[in-house]
Amino acid sequence: MSAQTPVQTQQTLSEFEIVDRRDFSDVTYLLEVHHPLMAKAARPGQFVIVMLHEHGERIPLTIADFDRTRGTITLVIQAVGKTTREMQQVCRVGTTLHALTGPMGEPSHIGASRKVVCVGGGLGVAPVYPQARAHREAGAYVIGIVGFRSQDLVFWEDKFRACCDELIICTDDGSVGLKGNVTVGLKQAIATHADIDEVVAIGPPIMMKACAETTRPHFLKTMVSLNPIMVDGTGMCGGCRVKVGDGIKFACVDGPDFDGHQVDFDDLMVRLKRFADQERAAFERWSETCRGRTAAALLATAAAGRGA
Q: DSSP string spanning 209-261?
């Protein structure tokens, strides 16, 4: 099976069973999903399209890890909108996702660089991990840089130390590692290593832009992973178009990896706000429904108690 060929999702629901769930914070959680075919086909840098239930929206999530022996893929999710918050509530070990399509997107190019810096900021820490591991397995010297707001939000430190020759942790409050964002660590790595071949940066657009501007004066190849608004994930809707250099690319089929020095991040950040009103309205409707269900459950419990 080609790495670029999505695995069809018309299978029994047991194929999408959640076999592990971990919570890293009040908004960040991990789901490990059973899907042997996808685990076999997955490559660093690729993503999946997920549907929680039959009437749910389709959302893109980067593959944070894959285990061919266990037959699973790992997703690290931040509960920021209606669907990701709903998933946070209902996705437990033993439950299933309605649909899981992938792996999608072009895999990251691994193997040519001898010394690589892999930078992950916030939720971008998870998807940069398989790239760091793949570069290390290809024989590269890997410098990992991960950024968090504070020490209590740090996750996967052990996994990064296992695949990185050097690991720099940055925190906004300085509670662990360097104080400041990931560009502080990136500047330190550049100053210490004159022979860096490539920088890989994954995280919020503003963070990836900052990394690209940090490496630009040094003419360091800098790859970023873009996750703009996606709908179908096949390039048909055009929702994920991004400006790269003098052209237009579709992140779902041409990416998600692009030359960070060529990406128009300002345009990307504007496009990411395109459906903010609709997203807010959807979350409010869902919240009202949740409150209604909670109230109904409390009333039913009280009625049952009176009946007893």
A: HHHHHHHGGGT-EEEEE-----SSSSSSS-TTEEEETTEEEEHHHH-SEEETT
